[in-house]
Write a sequence for this structure.
């Protein structure tokens, strides 16, 4: 069953429940141009031009690895913007969204599933995504287990523990939950025990170390972990692989000055990948450049999954 077919099936199964609101921005933001992201304020008093720009990558198991991976990019961004740029390690999707909402985070990469909530609640304006040299992009959701677990197919998860990363994650929670419910009639708490590891890295390590019977993960993260020796291929068995999803969306806080937002965009799209610390890490999953994206177009399937799952974008 394709992603859209399972979404339709899941939507039918949820038909008896009250409908949730369609995607909409929090009341503090406006969207006059209809592009589904917050407009840049027209009142100069609402704009900010910080001396130091804070940059965060999506939460990972070992932030030190990614501080090093992003080092060349940060130097390049400092040269383009003329500002100091500081890498800020994030430990959860919720903390990342709250940091931008509170004005403490200016440039960020939000994972696939967190993009809608970051846009709705924190004024995130995504404009870029990593891609291969030919412009292709994305990753797949895989459900993995360990050799000898007794799990050879999805039905075997019944009665066992399945690890998710976090409830805001597309591949780490929403897509696999929709898949298990629509295709197999399996629900957490009834047919299997759900555990939340907090991050894809933790889920992969948890399966490799036999702490979890199985896990739903973004395979781009798993591929990079295998490549740098964090886990070995003989510790992992994949029992399901989805269609391709868009990957991490990169962008800025809506209230940076228009001139600064353009400089930051320039920093992304002019970044010299070849031989860089970023290439060393992300070439492991086939990514070699930044390409322009729009939330309205590139995140359609993610919003459809959210709708099928009954996700609310109400801000806390």
């Amino acid at each position: 069953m394709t992603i859209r077919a399972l979404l339709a099936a899941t939507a039918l199964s949820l038909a008896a429940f009250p409908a949730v609101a369609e995607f909409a921005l929090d009341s503090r933001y406006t969207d006059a141009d209809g592009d589904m992201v917050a407009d840049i304020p027209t009142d100069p008093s609402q704009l900010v031009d910080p001396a130091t720009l804070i940059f965060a990558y999506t939460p990972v198991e070992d932030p030190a690895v990614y501080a090093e991976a992003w080092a060349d990019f940060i130097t390049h961004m400092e040269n383009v913007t003329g500002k100091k740029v500081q890498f800020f390690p994030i430990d959860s999707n919720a903390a990342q969204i709250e940091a931008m909402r509170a004005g403490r985070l200016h440039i960020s990469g939000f994972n696939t599933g967190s993009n809608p909530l970051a846009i709705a609640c924190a004024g995130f304006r995504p404009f870029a995504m990593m891609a291969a040299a030919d412009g292709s992009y994305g990753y797949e959701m895989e459900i993995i287990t360990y050799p000898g677990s007794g799990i050879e197919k999805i039905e075997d998860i019944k009665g066992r523990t399945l690890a998710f990363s976090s409830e805001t994650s597309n591949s780490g929670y929403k897509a696999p939950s929709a898949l298990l419910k629509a295709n197999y009639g399996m629900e957490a708490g009834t047919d299997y025990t759900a555990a939340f590891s907090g991050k894809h890295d933790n889920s992969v390590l948890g399966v490799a170390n036999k702490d979890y019977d199985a896990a739903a993960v973004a395979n781009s993260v798993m591929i990079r972990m295998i490549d740098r020796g964090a886990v070995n291929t003989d510790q992992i068995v994949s029992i399901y692989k989805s269609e391709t999803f868009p990957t991490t969306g990169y962008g800025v806080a809506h209230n940076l000055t228009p001139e600064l937002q353009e400089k930051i965009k320039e920093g992304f799209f002019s970044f010299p990948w070849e031989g860089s610390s970023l290439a060393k890490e992300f070439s492991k999953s086939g990514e070699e450049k930044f390409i322009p994206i729009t939330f309205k177009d590139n995140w359609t399937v993610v919003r459809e999954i959210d709708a099928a799952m009954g996700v609310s974008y109400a801000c806390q």
About this structure: The longest strand covers residues 237-245. The chain is about 35% helix and 20% strand. The two ends are 35 Å apart (CA to CA). The mean pLDDT is 90.
